[in-house]
Structures are given as structure tokens and as C-alpha cells.
């Protein structure tokens, strides 16, 4: 892969050929924390209790069962499942066989799901019984040798059209609960996942045993993970393996709560589990933590969740959510940054820098909206469009590049996407700054930033400013081609129901925050904005529509 | 090195060839924590203040200076220094050149020091001006190309007989404060140190960039190291690089206090620095922390050092020291285990296990005397003399073996010592147990344990029990050969001044704690016990004297 020169020094006497393997994490937990609980909801929604000793035995049984089916080193095994106990067990059973655990995103279209299964060369798919329709939709995938159904009911409860399905628990039941794990070359892929962008087919990332181990330690540092912690992963496990939090928890010997299947429309079980189980670490999106906050506010008995840190790294948590959780439950909503390409956590904004101890509280809340400090062991740099590294002055914006032992250096079998990588750096496509205190703040997507007269205008900053007007429901700012200035901003605005907005009001609102040359050339009031199939704002369509 | 078979899986897309290099740690700290302070005492004992930005610049200057002298990749450079700022800088400047920073133990005999310098093939020695006599004592070492003197005074203050000495600071002063660090193959030796046993010459251990990086992350987990912490290393840096604490601190971006030269006879400056600088992590031996406790007890104004955790891993801290610190200063004295062969921290007893939250306070204090829980990522097993792995029952004793990514797998160029290693495990020579909660407790040295009738009697347990009699000043229990029982215990006892003891009293004291068959066959009252040159009890001599 690498052509760079490298220095070599005196030989060491250390066990440098001891391979970093993910299965050793669970072995450590089972040896030193056998009694530590793994609490989970079964597939009927009932809470059950297990522990590391039991889980280590079940993972052994699972490995015997899978290996008996024919799962072999180098095989890719797709997994369609919720945040279930069995999904956690597969995290260790599959890589322990030197197979690759491929996360299948249950939100993908049938077409994309079939693409992922075929492109990855998956030979097997493990599917939770409740997700059978997704598997049935892709049963024609040519490379699949076998379908493995995960169910808490022997033989399952549901009819399926899948050819020759086998039932995982039934295969496990008579197997030995000990397995002689072989050492695995550490750059072997333990996991894989596919990223979903707004353009093109999902792109595959194969995570090595090494990268997962190092990322887990880095997460310990970032969040002070210890065996006193209790993790409940709320981010779906198919999103970059719930951001690596489960691996960090197992490596530390932390208690784990697996919430199974859940929905933002019914957060009661999640919220009560936070209280009952003493959860101290969690993650997820504002879409689920906002209703949880509402649930706690409406709860008869007040809760004290101080010590709980909830990482929200997908999209920026609103200040109201952060302050709300602190007030209502004493918990910290922690902003951070992660992408599938970065394992994913590479920046986190939890513990305030010592040098900022005297910062005014309001400024600190504002700073908490940034993505935070780089993880120990990750390089982050800000590059201007002409390839100059930018200073950490909080002003000089550029594309954010990442490099390190758990950063992707290529997409699997997608040579046409090679321009996302440069000299070992991953070009994130995000625009951001680093302030003099070292805090990373993302300001825009590179494709959405408006390049005008050699300067950049952040479309997101401008959208947020427009949204300060309570009469505005939605806003989108795009750059449109301009002969003289290269690009000029144009704003699309949707009025809140029962309100009206006009271009002048919008421009007036903006003029207090933006220089005159930055103000949009046009403000267009529309009834709705174009969105992608997963509900994201579709600026690409907006730009092409605008050009017509 | 390894002949074991290894599985290989699907290739990953991660940057698995990104080399773990120690210099990147300092680069991260300088980038994200430029303002974080490095406080140090200069060589006249005055406190000075620097920060990571300044230190990173000075390390660059140092690398230019050393490289200018001719220090090249693969070179071994000995360092004779206190816990000084310059010593910390050398930690990064030397490995950054792909040279090996060789710790020279300033307590070694001239003969052993010369052996270490010659056996390691050191080409250069950096010596603090105050330690010149040590360097002058070994100036005939054939392989040394140059002597480099570290002093805060340009040109130094002291005459020296070293041939053609150069002054490090003088070489640095005109050098650039930026250096283009090259990537170094991660199994290159960044550091080396020599262990001093009671028998034979010191044995060399060469620590790789990889092992140091992984150990640093593991220490973060063990001690929840973050950028909020402030480390003052009290263990000398020539003892396994002050147990890796400085690397962990730099990787986290923690504040660091370098105490320079200090002595147990004058702990005032150390004790006041703990208070003034807000130290939260430290380490060292009871020999220095006992007078620090006495200092705080005698201090006019009481201190609150809650949040401070002091790791004592060399020898077991007395319960009185642990309780005393908690009462006098709110600080935790934390027991742990480390050896030069293990980088060194592989077990630590800091945060109580969740499952022991209901343990009675007295039992918890007793448990705190054990070495604690294995570090995340280290394998520990207890092996009987006939090679059977022992259960974690707190009773089944055996030799303690260690394996992992930062454990030594051989001594440098000492093939005759190969029996200390077995299938990738290091045999520590310690006897211990692991209890059902996973806590490691060392009970004896293998060579000192008494093997009687197929059972083991811990010489240390018996010595401690004898010392419960206040009339006893010192005690040593050895095993002497016995035809029927293999070995039988014999106790040597020294009475406290002004007291008398006799064999019967000793046997009576012991009979409440030991079974009848375990009681010593003979109790010998003597005036003094034989000791080694560094003051350790010399049981080898006691055994040979006893046999006469």
C-alpha cells in the first residue's frame, strides 16, 4: 500500500508480533469480570440478564455452530439485526473465526442492500427473525451460500421464503461452551460496513482487528471508560458498529445494556433502563434523545443521571437539548465527530480543557457545540482548496483531513473513489476550523460551501441564521455559478405554517450577522424543499432545479 | 520469532501500515494542548514553567543537535539523568531519530553500569552535569563515540575528565524549532533498560515504539488518564521509564510536573508541588511516600488532595500508608504490579469493582493490598510447578505468567536466560493467586516459596505474621532441603532494640495463623540479616549460610 520511506531502528525485545485481536477483548472481560452483567431485551421485548462468563460461553458455542456450517477464514458474513445480545455475540464469534462481520444497514433500499451483499462478496447472512422481509428481498443475491436466522424461539415463529434457512440458536445448543481461539493476523478485516452518501452506491470499509483494538483504547481515553461504567448503545449497531462503544465497553469490562429493538416513538423502555441499570455512557442522535428528554420532563419522579455522558456525533445537538439534559437529569450531552471512515470517533467535546476553566459559562455552552478535541492518536488537519494547511485560529476554514491507525485508506474495490484519499489522509469532505484552543468545529460540507470571490461562505451558518426568525420553518442556502465571483449564495425558505416570510425580512435578519458581500443574491420562498429518500436535504436537486 | 500458525482473513481497508510512533504523541499534545504546562525544576532546584508548544520546539532543536553530532537510526544512546525536563525531551528526540534511548540506572555499581553500556552497544551517553562522576567512572567503555553533557549553564559549571565532551544546550541553541519527523517502523526499539536481579548481570529489555504506544493507552484505561490530569512522576525515570506514566500523560495532553533531583530526606518541594500544581497522578515507592505523608501530617495548613491517585507498584504499600493518605489528604495510594519486562503496568487496584460495592470497608482495605485487576489487553495466568493453569479461587497459588502486546519475549543477547519465556509468556518468578473477583495477589518470589510435602508455604506471609510481634524488628523465612518433605521452613529473627525474642514465642504467634505442618522446624534468633548491596534481604546467602 505504502511507498513512503520508513526508518528502522534497533530491534526490540517486545512481543511485537502479538496480534491485536478483538476476541481477546471478550476473553479479558470473561476472565476478570465474569460476573459483570450484560442486560438485554429479548426478541419479545422482555428484559433478561446475562454476564461476561455466560456470554463468553455462548460466543464459543456460536463459533462452533458457524464453523460447523462452513464459515471459514476470509468469509464475509452479513448481519441484519437490532442492538441485540446476539448481535453483540456475533461481534466476537465471527471475527474470532477470522471471518468478517458485515454490518447490513436495515434502513437501506432493497436495491442498495442487494448491492452491498453482492459487492462485499458476502457468503452468509445472519438475520433477526423480525427482519426476515429484508433478507427475503435480497434472496436472489448470487454469492449467498446460506441464510442463518436468529430467533429466541427454537425453530423460529415465522414462515420464510428464504431457501434452506438454519436457526442459529438451534445450532448452538449442543455445542461446547469453550473454543480454542486461534491468533489472527491483525490486519485481517474483523468487520465491514458500507457508507451511504447522497451520490453513488454505498462504499465499503473493512475494519481490521488492529484498527478496532486501537480505536477502543482511544475511546477509553476520550470518555474515561472504565469497568465502573455501564454502556447502553442507542446508535444502531449497523452505524459504524454503534461507534465502537461496545468494543470499548468489553475491553474495559464495563456493564452493558442491549436495548434490542426500539423506536423514537416509544422511548419509555430506553429512558427507564437508563435509570434502572445506572447507565453512564450512551450515544445516538437528537432524534431519539430529544424524546427521551421530553419523557424525563414529563416523568412523575425526577431522575438523577449525573455521571451519564451521551455522545451525539451524527449531527449537532441543539443547545436546548444539551442544557435540557443537564437541568432535567444532570447528564451531559457530548458532541463529537465520527464517520464510518474513521472507526468512527476522532474528536470529542467532553471534559473542558484545563486552560478554559475560567471561561464564562455561556461561552462554554457555545463551545460545547463544536466537535471538540481530537482523539489521542489521530491527526486532523485543515486544508485550503489550494492544498495549504491552515492555522488553528478558529477562522481559517478548509477541508478537514484525518489520518491515523484507525482511519480508512481506501474504499473496498472502488478505485474511482480514490480521490477521497491523499498521502494516507482521508479527505472528509467537511469544511471546518480548529480554534486556538484546539477545538474542531465543522461549518459545512465542502460541496455545500459557497466559494465567492476567493472567500468561503458557510451555507449552514447562513441557514441557521435564517432559522433564527421564528416565522421560518426550513431554509437551504446553495451556491449558484457566477461569472465574476465564481459562486453566489441563494437562499430557499419555507414559512412556518400560519406565517409568511419575504425576501427582505430574511435579508434584514442576515445583515446583522453577515457582511454585505456575503448576503444572498436571491431569497426564494417555496412551499417545500427537496429531500432524499432518507429525509436529508437534497441540495444537489436544489442546485439543478435552480439552474433551470 | 514466532512459529505458531496464524489465521488470515479478508484484507482490511484501514491504515494498518500507519506505524505507532512515540514522537506522534508529543506532536498531538503540541497541536491540541499547546498551552498546557510542563512545570519543572532546573538543575539549580528552581521551579520553571514551559508548555507543550515550547517543548515540541525544543525537542526539534534537540533532534537537530543530536543528528548533527551523528546520532543515527539504530544507535543506542545512554542517558544518565534525574526526572528532569531534558530527560523528558530526550524521551522524544532520541526515538524520533529512530535511535534507542537507553535508561542508565544511576544506582548501579560502576561495574554493572559499564556492563550495561557495553552490552547494549551504546554509542553515545547523555549525562546530567550533576552525575558526571558516574560517567567518568565508565569512560573507558570502548563503544562510546561521544559524551554529551546536559546542563542549564552554557558550557557547564563543572570540570570533567570525559574526553571531548559536548554540551547539549549549546548545540541546540541555534537549531530550528521544527523537525520533519520521519515515520519509524513500529517494532524498532524506542527505549531500552536493564533489569537488576539478585543474580547475574543486568538483563536488557528493548521497548518498541509499538509496545510503548499500546502500553500508554492501556495506562489511560487503568487510571482514567485525561487531559484534565496533572502528572508528577516520582519514580525515577530510569525505572522502566517511570512506569510509562510520562508517555500516558503526553498522549492525553495532561499537565506534567518534573521534580528534577529530589531525595526522601527532603520531600518538602515534592509535597508542596503536589498542592501548588494540582497534581492528580503520581507514583513511587513507600520509601518516599511515607515521608511525604509525615510531611502533610506535620504541615500547619491541612491539604485536600482528593482526586490524586498515587501508584505504588514496586513493593506493597502498608495499610497504614494507604489509610493515612486517605485521612490526611483525601488521596488514594493505589497498589499495582509492574516489572521492567511488562512495560511495566499490567495490574492495578484503583477503582473498586462494581460487584464489590457492598463489600465491608475493612475487607476492601484488605483487598486494596492486592495488586488488583489485569490491565485491559494483558493476559495473566497462574501456573503450578507442573505446568497446570490454576483456577481463580484465591487459593490455588502458582507462578504468575504474563503475555501481551507490551510484554518482553526475550532478553537482549542473553540466550542463557531464555527459560524466563515460554510460548510468548514471560514467567515472572513471582508466586501469586487470582481471587474469584479477578484480583491478582502476589504472595512470594518463586525462589523463596517453601515447597513442603507437595504444598507451598509462603515465606512472605510467614515473615509478616512473625512481624506482628512488636518485639521483632526483622524476619526472614527460608526453605531448607529435607529428605522426606522436600523442603521445610526455617525462620531467622532479629529482635527490636531493647527487646528479646525466643523461638517459642515466635512459634506461638504463628500457630494462630498457620497449620501445624507449616510451622518452622527451627527459629533462629540472630543479630542481623544478610543484605545485598542495594539493601534487599539476601535469602540466597541466608540459605547457603544455613546449610553450613
UniProtKB/TrEMBL annotation, chains A, B:
Pfam family, one: AMP-binding
Signal peptide coordinates: none
Domain of life of the source: Bacteria
Record GO terms (molecular function): ligase activity, forming carbon-sulfur bonds
Annotated keywords: Ligase
Family as reported in the entry's similarity comment: Belongs to the ATP-dependent AMP-binding enzyme family.
PANTHER family noted in UniProt: LONG-CHAIN-FATTY-ACID--COA LIGASE, MEDIUM-CHAIN-FATTY-ACID--COA LIGASE
Record's protein name: Long-chain-fatty-acid--CoA ligase
Annotated organism of origin: Rothia koreensis
Amino acid at each position: 500500500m505504502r511507498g513512503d520511506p520508513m526508518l528502522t531502528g534497533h530491534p526490540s525485545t517486545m512481543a511485537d508480533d502479538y496480534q491485536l485481536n478483538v476476541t481477546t477483548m471478550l476473553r479479558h472481560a470473561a476472565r476478570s469480570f465474569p460476573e459483570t452483567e450484560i442486560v438485554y431485551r429479548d426478541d419479545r421485548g422482555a428484559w433478561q440478564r446475562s454476564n461476561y462468563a455466560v456470554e463468553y460461553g455462548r460466543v464459543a458455542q456460536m463459533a462452533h455452530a458457524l464453523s460447523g456450517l462452513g464459515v471459514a477464514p476470509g468469509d464475509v458474513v452479513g448481519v441484519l439485526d437490532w442492538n441485540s445480545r446476539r448481535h453483540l455475540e456475533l461481534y466476537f464469534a465471527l471475527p474470532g473465526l477470522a471471518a468478517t462481520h458485515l454490518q447490513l444497514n436495515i434502513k437501506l433500499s432493497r436495491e442498495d442492500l442487494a448491492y452491498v451483499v453482492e459487492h462485499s462478496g458476502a457468503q452468509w447472512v445472519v438475520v433477526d427473525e423480525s427482519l426476515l422481509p429484508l433478507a427475503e428481498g435480497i434472496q436472489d443475491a448470487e454469492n449467498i451460500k446460506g441464510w442463518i436466522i436468529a430467533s429466541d424461539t427454537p425453530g423460529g415463529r415465522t414462515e420464510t421464503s428464504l431457501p434452506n434457512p438454519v436457526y442459529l440458536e438451534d445450532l448452538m445448543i449442543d455445542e461446547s461452551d469453550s473454543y480454542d481461539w486461534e491468533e489472527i493476523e491483525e490486519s485481517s478485516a474483523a468487520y465491514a460496513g458500507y457508507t451511504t452518501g447522497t451520490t453513488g452506491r454505498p462504499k465499503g470499509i473493512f475494519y481490521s482487528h488492529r484498527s478496532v483494538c486501537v480505536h477502543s483504547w482511544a475511546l477509553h481515553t476520550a470518555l474515561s471508560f472504565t469497568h465502573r461504567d455501564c454502556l447502553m448503545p442507542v446508535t444502531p449497531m449497523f452505524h459504524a458498529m454503534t461507534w465502537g462503544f461496545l468494543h470499548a465497553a468489553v475491553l474495559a469490562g464495563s456493564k452493558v445494556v442491549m436495548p434490542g429493538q426500539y423506536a423514537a416513538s416509544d422511548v419509555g423502555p430506553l429512558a427507564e433502563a437508563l435509570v434502572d441499570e445506572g447507565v453512564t455512557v450512551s450515544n445516538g442522535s437528537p432524534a431519539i434523545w430529544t424524546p427521551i428528554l421530553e419523557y424525563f420532563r414529563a416523568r412523575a419522579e425526577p431522575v438523577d443521571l449525573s455521571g451519564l455522558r451521551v455522545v451525539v456525533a451524527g449531527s449537532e445537538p441543539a443547545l436546548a437539548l444539551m442544557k435540557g439534559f443537564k437541568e432535567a437529569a444532570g447528564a451531559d450531552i457530548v458532541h463529537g465527530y465520527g464517520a464510518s471512515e474513521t472507526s468512527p470517533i476522532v474528536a470529542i467535546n467532553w471534559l473542558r480543557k484545563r486552560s478554559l476553566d475560567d471561561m464564562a459559562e455561556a461561552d462554554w455552552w457555545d463551545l460545547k457545540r463544536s466537535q471538540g478535541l481530537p482523539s489521542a492518536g489521530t491527526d486532523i488537519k485543515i486544508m485550503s482548496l489550494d492544498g495549504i494547511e491552515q492555522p488553528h485560529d478558529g477562522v481559517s476554514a478548509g477541508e478537514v483531513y484525518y489520518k491515523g491507525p484507525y482511519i480508512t485508506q481506501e474504499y473496498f474495490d472502488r478505485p474511482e473513489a480514490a480521490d477521497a484519499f491523499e498521502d494516507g489522509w482521508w479527505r472528509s469532505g467537511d469544511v471546518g476550523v480548529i480554534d486556538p484552543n484546539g477545538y474542531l468545529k465543522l461549518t459545512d460540507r465542502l460541496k455545500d460551501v459557497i466559494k465567492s470571490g476567493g472567500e468561503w461562505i458557510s451555507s449552514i451558518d447562513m441557514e441557521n441564521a435564517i432559522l433564527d426568525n421564528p416565522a421560518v420553518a426550513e431554509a437551504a442556502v446553495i451556491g449558484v455559478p457566477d461569472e465574476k465571483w465564481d459562486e453566489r449564495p441563494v437562499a430557499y425558505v419555507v414559512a412556518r405554517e400560519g406565517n409568511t416570510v419575504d425576501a427582505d425580512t430574511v435579508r434584514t435578519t442576515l445583515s446583522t450577522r453577515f457582511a454585505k458581500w456575503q448576503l444572498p443574491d436571491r431569497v426564494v420562498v417555496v412551499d417545500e424543499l427537496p429531500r432524499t429518500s432518507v429525509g436529508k436535504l437534497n441540495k444537489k436537486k436544489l442546485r439543478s432545479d435552480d439552474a433551470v
